[in-house]
Write a structure and sequence with these properties.
Layout (H helix, E strand, L loop, with lengths): L5 E7 L4 E8 L3 H15 L8 E9 L7 H14 L3 E6 L3 H13 L5 E5 L1
Parallel strand pairs: 2-3, 3-4, 4-5
Antiparallel strand pairs: 1-2
Length: 116
């Protein structure tokens, strides 16, 4: 069974990053809460000067019904205007392929997946 989703969002003004930690599988309500928190944090900085770092090392492989939600999230990141997006995952070829496909589908050209 998938672990319940959780997240944290921190602004690092010295390193000019917004550090996200995303874990587990999100419910639609958790997605809405995340979007609200994310929007508030992004409004406090100039995203063009920041890199968005998403620690997704505990994120599960996406279920088919979660792919559209993830695409919408990636579009939100892109529309925020970040200089770059870096998504960190545990070595997982399926999840990496899913994320790279989502980056391609959303035309997010300055995004990368880092496996650890």
């Amino acid at each position: 069974m998938a672990k319940e989703g959780s997240y944290s969002i921190k602004v690092n003004r010295v390193a000019k990053t917004i550090d996200l930690v995303v874990a587990g599988t999100f419910t639609p309500q958790q997605v809405q809460e995340f979007v609200g928190d994310y929007t508030a944090k992004v409004k406090s900085v100039n995203p063009k000067e920041y890199t968005l770092i998403a620690d997704s090392t505990d994120m599960d492989v996406l279920t088919q019904d979660m792919v559209p939600a993830m695409e919408n999230t990636i579009r939100m990141y892109q529309q925020s205007g970040f200089d770059k997006l870096v998504v960190t995952i545990k070595k997982n070829p399926i999840l990496k392929m899913q994320l790279n496909r989502i980056f391609k589908n959303t035309n997010f050209t300055n995004a990368e997946v880092k496996e650890i």
